[in-house]
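Friendly challenge for the regulars: who can give me the structure tokens for this chain first? No prize, just bragging rights.
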Amino acid sequence: MHNDRDIAHTEKRKDGARVCVSADWEVVVQEACPRKPFDVVAMEPSKFVDLKEQTKQYTQRKKV
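First reply, four minutes later:
Bragging rights claimed.
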């Protein structure tokens, strides 16, 4: 499958790379497949959300 190939490309590239910070991972993933480079989107803390409150309205916990 395509996803498996993508992961294999990244794993292969990772073996020869020196990764110290998260920005290094961006470079490793971008360079993993030179013919068709991956689009890497750097996540900022503001893009992460806490879904704990939203899940409470959909989850029913039975207290025993």
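The mean pLDDT is 82. The helical segments are 2-15, 22-30, 52-56. Your move, everyone else.
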